Amino acid sequence: MRLRPPARLVLVLVGVASLMTPAYATAAREYRVLQLNLCHGGLNTACFRGAATIREALQVITAKRPDVVSLNEICREDVPELAAAMGGGFGTFAPARRPDGTPSRCTNGDEYGNGLIFRSSVAGEVSSAVYAAQDGGPERRVYVCVEYPDLIGCATHLSTKGGVAKAQCAAAIGLLRGRAAAGKQTVLAGDFNLRYASTVGPDVQDCNAPPFYRKGDGSVQHVFAANVGYVRTETTWLKYTDHPALLVVLNRR
């Protein structure tokens, strides 16, 4: 016959188990950040593949089930099309700028730049701006952010000139660092045109600062995050653009 432990012992064991289990463990939830540089503006003919790029992006978004997608080298009208794979979530777009301040254009005439799409349909507060540091080329680089009461997410695409990209990266981290230091859950994703542990130019880690940490694709795409846990990183080869899809899985409170 199997003996049951005394009721008092059961209560003691339960109490010990509760002390050993972190209070946040059951409250944390997975939050999936997908970074895509789609080369869809037509400006770079070496990687431009037209409508096939958007079809492939729709497939990877459907497969990876992100909570937020950060987009580079897209046209404005790509955002609502890609949002369909997110259940019609909230999306926004910020054009890169020409030296005269007017929006950069895709070869089809649409505005060209960066986008963010959230699975949530709730609209956040949108902000965007041109970086102070620029390389003198035809495209002035920008960032775009969406802020919610409990989260701020940003997308960016930096200069191909290493020193300028490093300055832009530091500016983006500096823009967000105060709110991150105050405890705001923060995510910054994009094509930084900087590598980790680089031997031929500035290191992307040089622009990092607490409380942020960084995860990347082994090349120039990165996700910086603060006040969220880290689970894993996945990269997926894409046929119709010159960058892989970078998925960084986080844990949010």
Description:
It is a single chain. This protein has one domain (29-252): Deoxyribonuclease I, Chain A (4-Layer Sandwich), CATH 3.60.10. The radius of gyration is 21 Å and the shape is globular. A six-stranded mixed sheet has the order 3-4-2-1-12-11. Strands 5-6-7-8-10-9 form a six-stranded mixed sheet, covered by helices on one side. The longest helix is centred in the last third of the chain and has 20 residues, at 162-181. Strand 9 (213-216) and strand 10 (221-226) form a beta hairpin. It is built from four helices and twelve strands. It has 253 residues and is an alpha+beta fold.
What's the SSE blueprint?
Elements: H1 7-20, E1 29-37, H2 51-64, E2 68-75, H3 78-83, E3 91-95, E4 112-118, E5 125-130, E6 142-148, E7 151-157, H4 162-181, E8 185-191, E9 213-216, E10 221-226, E11 229-236, E12 245-252
Parallel strand pairs: 1-2, 7-8
Antiparallel strand pairs: 1-12, 2-4, 3-4, 5-6, 6-7, 8-10, 9-10, 11-12
Assembly annotation: single chain
Q: Proportion of β residues? A: 25-35%
Report the C-alpha radius of gyration, rounded. 21 Å
Query: Mind summarizing the main beta sheet?
Result: 6 strands, mixed
Please name the CATH architecture. Answer: 4-Layer Sandwich
